[in-house]
From TrEMBL:
Homotrimer. The keyword Plastid does not apply. It comes from Mycobacterium noviomagense. Catalyzes the reversible cleavage of pseudouridine 5'-phosphate (PsiMP) to ribose 5-phosphate and uracil. Functions biologically in the cleavage direction, as part of a pseudouridine degradation pathway. Binds 1 Mn(2+) ion per subunit. The gene is psuG. Mn(2+) binds at residue 135. Its EC number is 4.2.1.70. This is Pseudouridine-5'-phosphate glycosidase. Pfam families: Indigoidine_A. The keyword Lyase applies. Gene3D superfamilies: Indigoidine synthase domain.
């Protein structure tokens, strides 16, 4: 592993650090738009007084904190970069494969380095039709074993969100709502399952997380922040999921295939919402991280 000097210095001195993934750069958007999303996320983290730690696997090393040139490599590679979950990290390092880390893989690095906050668009979870396929993202297990707050706009819209919430409850992961009583549905703020608790300030969120870790040890927390603006496109998402299923696409290829189709079916409107919520979630994660650092 190679940790960027800025990240290492922040961790040593107790300054706030926010982890960011790279899958969204290479697989989450078309035509290089993922780079802009990643850059905006890093900018929002810095604006809130924290240090961004974008994680990726490059030239046989896990990089915790990417340079601009390294980040651009994920953009240029696009879908040719391996979508790397926690299970894939060692293989990517051994084979010197360019590995774009998922939420789960990024959390596994957070656990090693002691990073307690992460911002992303949406976490992986239980896929629609899971009873037949058992397709459940490893993100959930990594969240359950990593003492970190993950700020997202809920689970990805392509998933079975109620089932994902049920599994998070089973894994003892508190699902919090940022100024909302229900878990956002990624593009849409309403219609999701009830959250375990609502939080209205960054100080309250930091305190709740601190007490949770003190009393329970290692479990993470999911904070759902409603997207602004939002886009109610559930029929479009359902159609995209159906088409991808009929095409026989399975496993890690499902999410990027569905997102690409949703982008096409919405004439690009989904992209603008996606980019904005990623930046907003990163900014909120940084504000909570700063509040936590101040109190510890």
């Amino acid at each position: 592993m190679r940790v960027a000097d800025e990240v290492a210095d922040a961790l040593r001195s107790g300054r706030p650090v926010v982890a960011l993934e790279t899958t969204l750069v290479s697989h989450g958007f078309s035509q290089g738009r993922g780079l802009l999303a990643a850059q905006q996320a890093e900018q929002r983290v810095r604006a809130a007084g924290a240090v961004p730690c974008t994680v990726g696997i490059v030239d046989g090393f896990v990089r915790a904190g990417l340079s601009a040139a390294e980040l651009d490599r994920f953009t240029q590679a696009g879908a040719d970069a391996q979508k790397a979950g926690a299970r894939d990290i060692a293989a990517c390092v051994t084979r010197r494969t360019l590995g774009a880390t998922t939420v789960g893989a990024t959390l596994s690095i957070c656990r090693l380095l002691g990073i307690r906050f992460m911002g992303t668009g949406g976490i992986g979870g239980v896929h629609r039709g899971f009873a037949e396929t058992l397709d459940i993202s490893g993100d959930l297990l990594q969240l359950a074993r990593t003492p970190a707050v993950v700020v997202s706009s809920g689970a990805k819209a392509i998933l079975d969100v109620p089932a994902t919430a049920e599994l998070l409850e089973t894994l003892n992961v508190p699902v919090l709502g940022w100024r909302t009583d229900t878990l956002p549905l990624f593009y849409c703020s309403q219609g999701g399952p009830s959250v375990a608790a609502r939080v209205d300030t960054v100080a309250e969120t930091a305190q709740l997380a601190s007490i949770h870790w003190e009393l329970t040890g290692s479990a993470g927390l999911l904070l759902g922040r409603p997207p602004e603006p939002e886009l109610d496109i559930e029929p479009v998402v359902a159609e995209a999921v159906s088409q991808v299923h009929q095409a026989g696409i399975t496993g890690q290829a499902v999410t990027p295939a569905v997102l690409a189709l949703v982008e096409e079916l919405t004439d690009g409107r989904s992209v603008a919402v996606n980019q904005q919520l990623i930046a907003d979630n990163a900014g909120l994660a940084a504000e909570i991280a700063a509040a936590y650092a101040t109190s510890h």
